Amino acid sequence: MPAENPSKRLLLLMPTTTYRADPFLEAARRLNLEVVVGSDFCQVLAAEWDIPLSLRLRYVSQAVDEIVDYAGEHPLDAIVPVDDYTTEIAARACKVLGLPHNTPEAAIAARNKFRMREMLSAAGVWCPPFARFDLSVPVEEIALEQRYPCVLKPILLSGSRGVIRADSPDGFIEAFRRIGRILEGMSDRPPSLDPDAHRIMVESYIPGQEVALEGLLNGGRLRVLSLFDKPDLLEGPFFEETIYVTPSRLPEETQQVAFDAVQRASTAVGLTEGPVHAELRVHHGEARIIEIAGRSIGGLCSRVLEYGLGVSLEELILRHALGQHVDGVGRKAQGRGGTDRGTDSEPKGMDDSGNKPGAAGVMMLPVPEGGLFQGFDGVEEAKKTPGVEDVVVTAKEGDMLTPLPEGAGYPGFIFAKGDEPCQVEQVLRKAHGRLRMRVKTVLAT
User: Fold this and answer.
1) pLDDT per residue over 230-249, tens digit each?
2) What fold characterizes domain 9-101?
3) 195 Cβ neighbours under 8 A, 6+ residues apart
4) pTM for this entry
5) Which CATH architecture has domain 360-440?
6) Which CA distances in Å does 382 have to 58, 95, 302, 390, 416?
7) Positive or negative torsion for Cα 281, 282, 286, 287
């Protein structure tokens, strides 16, 4: 929606399936920006967005040309992609228009699991043994050549979709064929022209506690916004994320090791500007990169950061994209959650009175069984759990829910705050225990 007195025009690139539309649009309104939404199916966007730009997101070059043509008549001050799917288009368009951006090569590497590993390894960043395979390879033969345990990953799918651990050759064969069926049967997104869309990466399993880092890059320097613990063990065979809690309970020196690892990985991949989201495993004081992405945290999870920073993550991202100074934004309000700091500085998590910050967390509601979503029972009871900030159901009645590894997305989120991370974790688990998801089984035909 155009602002009353807009001073800047912003292009937001978002597929119509994104969770992130409302938070970014609200941040743009607060900053008095004129917003242009670039999407693949503009007819389904909310009418309030007003100036949708229909783009062929499947065809990167065409989408870039369409953006450049649009900018010729409607000059743009910034282009912001909201997820992995649009980062390369944003990078290429920004390059043509002379706007601050990551290089297209960095954008590609940050969403291509195999290319990311290649660049990390070439830069001397530790990586497990890894390899890439076409779906047509003789899987029985390559299964005998692997080290176990190992993890099989679709190269271009995001999150945990299609990610499967194998502990034996038989498990490898089963996982490889299952991922192949996922890649060949996807109907929820347009086919990719990238050959890696039909390839699988195999890497040795990385042990350890998993954490997630949310940060912002400015001229290649990492500003850490938060380090999240993932208290549920993620050991496979599938890797469904559930609880994120901040601040991390890891020792300060171990947290610094994680920050340094993400800084090195960002540099290795070539990411220099904008949001960065990294997944790591911490083991015996060392931090190993699982993945690093040139976008912000997925789903509605960014809301947790606002509890700590006093400003939304989306507002920080938009301010940075417009070239505004963001290092001091939100710090005075920080008092719950978050670990706002640079990679070479002390924590800045005290509020104005010098009090220790509290904690915040989110639970992404799991999908234990597939079927047509009928709703949740117990939502109001869950909301009344002391410490719960909100329970948000994002799935609509009649939506088809599919568990991992085939599925993608979550039917809802629980948000909580408390004095300590352990307290927040307990609150989230208690609230989740009050929810009962109803699904209608769909018989195979």
Assistant:
1) 999 999 999 999 999 999 99
2) Rossmann fold (3.40.50)
3) none
4) 0.89
5) 2-Layer Sandwich (3.30)
6) 40, 47, 21, 9, 11
7) positive
